[in-house]
Amino acid sequence: MQSPFPRVRGAAGVRSLPSLHVPAAVALAAGLAFAAGAQAAPAAQLGDTVVTATRTPQPLADLVADVSIVDRETIESSGATGVADVLARVPGVEISRNGGPGTTTSVYLRGAEQRFTAVFIDGVRMDSQTTGGAPWEAIPLGLIDRIEVLRGPAAAVYGSDAVGGVIQIFTRKGEGPAQPYVGVGAGSHGTYKAEAGVSGSAGEGRAVDYALGFEREISDGFNARPIAGQNPDKDGLRRSSVNARVGLQIDPRQRLEGTLAAADTNAGYDTTPLGNDDRALHRMHALGLNWRAQWSDRYTTRVSVTDSRDRYETRPSPYLTDTRLRGYLFQNEWREGGHLFTAALERREDELRNGAIDGDRSQDALALGYGFTSGPHALQFNARHDSDSEFGGHSTGSIAYGYAITPQWRATASAGTSFRAPTLYQRFSPYGVASLKPEEGRNTEVGLRWAQGASSASVVAYRNRVKNLIVFGAAGPCQDEFGCYANAGRARYQGVTLSAQHALGGVQLRASLDLQNHRDEDTGRQLARRAKRHATLGADTRIAGWTVGSEVQSSGRRFDNAANTFVLGGYTLVNLYASTRVGQDTTLLARVDNLTDKDYQTARTYAQAGRTFYVGLKWAPR
Q1: Strand locations in 269-388 (E)
Q2: Cis link prior to 101 (omega < 30° from 0)?
């Protein structure tokens, strides 16, 4: 019988890990957040420009939304093996993974389910029409130049899915003379990486810019499910990925750009009895074509055509699901002094091939926005109406206000609604119910931010209630006797996020702390795989030509199931890293993750890596 939970593999019992009460790392994070000051984007500076909040470029200092930025330098020094590992160090983000690299990975933004985060790669929407959500385990980290994380619903800008927030990934962009790079690395568990690429611009007036990159990663992995009755083999990874971006500046006011990001992943996992080599074959691509034209000093348009694919197959157990998304966007921007008016027409087309399902649907939308900035005041209003070919129309809206109390202090408040359309699998599989309604959210939040020089601070409190939550329940109106999907749930996501960075002498300190209470409103139980508290603390400095640093990640106790009967113990991880120049153009990076060799799980019965080492060399002429 086909599982009602695509890409999620079940697990048998295992002893629980010891419960963790808030360790020193959490206390330090809290103290730093209040005493030193924090900012929503630990890797960003207030002079940075972001586009995710409203789909238009905005200075970070003027934002009313709660946004973090992760830049290329942070990604490279992290030594992380996947995108989710980098995101786990961002305030408001938790992850769970079914084993080692390349296995099913979930990202919870402000505690919201995986499907409640809208994910884009260079403006191309990524999603699965099975259980929903982006295929985090398939997105290659090495090709990423920058990540913007928007916490809080943004359905009034992006439509379906943006219930918990939006994560936008950007690949490299070329500028200036040709800049090649080559990198190699090796680490624990037979891990090897190789990358190469080139970026730059050419032609008269540097009218053509380009970036091309390749990455190959292999790993023997480790036994992802060390329990009785499971295959004790190592669950390794093989991945090849490529990104390309070409831009043409037609004239000073018009730009044409094409982007591509693609990856082919072959990862091992354990779900069948001894003797089988279970493999998950994952292919993804994000392809986009954009034309931006500035018709006057006031009026700008953007036209985008995008295509994405998420193909997942398992062997020897036969399972195949294939999602294709196509998007069309026509956006208009009109600036009048401190006023910005936006209007967008957008169409999204979804296709799913999964067993007997061979279906498609479309959503057409009109989105309007208004932004105003004057002196200490900032106002943002958005409204959107989506018309779905299957279930009809749905309207969303949001309003946000910011006030600069002083040049250093800024207060914000916002409210917004959101929705997530049921997937084609949830409606038309043997477990599906065609009459499912969209899941609907209502969010309110307030924030206070402070910044002065290299120090900054923020605290954001939020509450997001979702009704018509789609859950898998008892047998009912669907075709299968095992169970059916139903709009039977209500959830409440609420919490406080503090984050901080502060320069103390020659040491750069950063910290974040999330205190949260994400619950099922019908049962009062804690939502699965989400802790009541998690924190990060990091520090780096320069010593004798080396950049050295450490970071601590800490998470409290969680439950692995909705009934709160299976406990996932809390854990604290300590990571160390160092880098230095070897010659003029070569950088050496060394990293130790999970220094104390902590035994922990983020999904029941699935092991996580113990102490690991990684050393890499990268040549990039300057």
Answers
A1: 279-294, 299-315, 319-336, 339-354, 357-374, 377-388
A2: no
